[in-house]
Amino acid sequence: MIFIAILAAGRSTRFGSQKLVQSYHGKLLLQWPIDVLRKISAEKLLVVSKTLDVSLFDLDGFKLIINEKPEYGISSSVKLAVSAAKGHEGILLLLGDMPKISTDLVKQVISMDRKRIVFPSHDGIKGFPVYLPSKYFEEAMLLSGDVGLRKIIAKHTNDVATFDGGEECIFDVDTPQDIL
Asked: Which of 29, 85, 104, 118 has CB 3.0 to 4.6 Å from 131, enough for a Cys bridge?
């Protein structure tokens, strides 16, 4: 069985305030990926910072882990999620600020060859969600700084499966203009 994690411990520096609690088309930004994953049968995790008010979200079915050191970058959240996924065949990672990712896109990623790193892309840009097989967990635990899985993907290009996931797989909210 796979393990699914939403990484949501970023500091929202480009946004200027905590973006995950902002409304995006009538719903809090972080609630979008939570609701998408509710339809997927897997163990689910949400990695957040200690400053995020999680009482604002419906987290039924999700385990919660607090990233005590989000200032160490996304690698700190990746390592927490991967550590929680030990014993699973792999982990599917999503970001909390990507509201356009659909259940169909998630299902497409997890239906592909789960012995390989799988992710959608669009216009030459790597997208999300990203599936990482457990054989790469040790390598993921060595990441540091504001680095996600790109380093691992670049090192193992011969073990990657990708497809065009459309604009939804690369859209994220970085600035207040992105939520309009």
From this structure: 118
139, exposed or middle or buried, with CB in 10 Å at 0-12, 13-18, 19+?
A: middle
The answer to whether the CB of 160 falls within 8 A of the CB of 116 is: yes
Global pTM reads 0.95
Q: Which residues pair with 93 in a beta bridge?
A: 5, 130
CA distances to 41, 125, 159 from 133, in Å: 17, 21, 10
Tokens 């550590």: give the residue. 83
What is the DSSP-derived secondary structure letter of residue 42? Answer: S
CATH of the domain at 125: 3.90.550.10
| Residue 12 pLDDT > 90 | no
Domain that holds residue 128: 2-179
Side chain identity, residue 167: E
Rg (CA), the chain: 15
Binning the chain into helix, strand and coil, the percentages to the nearest 5 are: 30, 25, 40
Average pLDDT over residues 8-22: 87
Cβ-proximal residues to 99 (8 Å cutoff; 6+ apart), any chain: 24, 25, 27, 29, 32, 33, 171, 173
